[in-house]
Amino acid sequence: MTDKVLVTRRVAPEALAKLRRFVEQVDVHEGNTALSEAELIERVGDATGLLVPGDVISAAVVAAAPRLRAVAAVSVGYNNLDIGAMNARGILATNTPDVLTDTTADLGWALMMATARRVTEAEHYLRAGRWREWQADLLLGQDVHHSTLGIIGMGRIGQAIARRARGFDMNVLYHNRSRLDEAVERSLAAEWVAKDELFRRADHVVVVVPYSPATRHLIGTAELALMKPTATLTNIARGGVVDEEALLAVLRDRRIAGAGLDVFEGEPDFRKGFLDLDNVVLLPHIGSASAATRFKMADLAVDNLIAALNLGPHAGRPAH
Ligand code: DGY
Questions:
Q1: 320 is an active site residue
Q2: Name one Pfam family in it (predicted).
Q3: d(CA 248, ligand 1 centre) in Å
């Protein structure tokens, strides 16, 4: 039986061309929007592999694909895949770490700075024709340089953010399930602290911890209540890590200076209450969205899928 791969959404044509060199049948959903679960179930049929740029692969989708052997996520996060259902069938799942680390850290930095310095709010002010004259107290924000950064989740992206902090002379605190090696801590000049202490001391908190049932609403009313009134919170991980109702309340009451959100619990849907607030910067999940990085992610996901299906050069059987 030949292999068949379903590509659930548009990816770089070069990556598709590579896939086609190794896989006889490639079925591409040409649209740029997610297939529904019902559509996936209908289409997944005899696929042996899936290339998945963000779509939800539920247990029902897995069950509808009796020949499925591998699922390649075009993302570092894989909370969109039902890993339990895949494990039960011995289906391999892969992701795309490393290639997006710096791009995502850059976006985290941009979002933190935009939030602290009220960049989007200031632009709206100008575009709305409200700028009449220079004023000493116009749109005053919070400094980033020489402040204390608190990083929740110190994996690859967290560490890349810590490296950037050195250029801003920041004091770096982090909280992670496990502490980094002392040598790594030293090289990043980062100090491990308990979660509550981080929220109490940080001027800018950046959330980069992966989503799992254990990290759902890791940051809620209790943590937000510990933050300084001048502090900001930036989430580039997954929306579900932060209790958005609690965050909305804190922002409405101006109990922290602001928040920057690139991710939302029910995205692309999100709590519309955020739209009424000028102290939150809202982005449509663009953490890894540079042209070069999205290309590398698709390319790596294809390599992963080819290897997982055992079709690579070692298997010695390109289709054409
Ligand atoms: C990732 O790779 O997990 C990014 O958030 C894009 O989904």
A1: no
A2: 2-Hacid_dh_C
A3: 24
